[in-house]
Amino acid sequence: MPAAPSFAHPLLRVPTPAAWVDTACASPDVLLIDHANCEKKAASTALALMFAYAEDLELTDKMSRLAREELRHYEQVAKLIRKLGVAPLRLAPGRYAERMRRLVAKAEPLREVDLMICGAFIEARSCERFAVLADAIGAPLKDLFEGLHNAESRHYRVYLDLARRAARRAGVSVEARVEAFAALEADLITQPDAVFRFHSGPLQVS
Q1: How far, in Å, CA of 36 to CA of 104, rounded?
Q2: Which of 97, 108, 134, 149 is most exposed by smallest CB count within 10 Å?
Q3: Residue 115 and residue 85: Cα distance in Å, rounded?
Q4: pTM, rounded to two decimals
Q5: Confidence label for 32 from pLDDT (cuts 50, 70 and 90)
Q6: b/e string for 61-72 if b means 16 or more Cβ within 10 A?
Q7: Cβ atoms within 10 A of the Cβ of 91, count?
């Protein structure tokens, strides 16, 4: 039997499990609704960082641009939801983002480093999943995800650059913090999850 292809990524340690992809392809309505929520959360996170670090004009400029782009992505997803006649549904958030943010330091200057690293991982996983889904799911979702892939790839690099910049100013190792987040992220992505969400692990089988 041939060996499974290796997975190499600057941040992510594991690929999206095939079981998650199968669930996503079988649950396009939930996938779209939760993805719309993710785009809104991404925009609100960028805005929150603009207020938290208002004196940092380089950071606020990058977050302003990112927030606008995330809102445009939300509009694209919402337009497709309406076009497909998907019934609006209020979804409880999954565990992924909340668990990732538990690892963020409470005090500065490490808190800024961690917030940027956390954002980088969330965007990087979105990017990876867009690529996987574009190969596995049919139109019109395929077209949407192909269009969003490049933007998310750019977003995670923005966050990672800001993390490195904050780490240099704080005199701390960004590599050590990246490794801590990478280990947690890999666990969340591979371990069974109680609910299916855009950033969930494979659905738990009862």
Answers
A1: 25
A2: 108
A3: 36
A4: 0.94
A5: very high
A6: ebbeebbebbbe
A7: 14
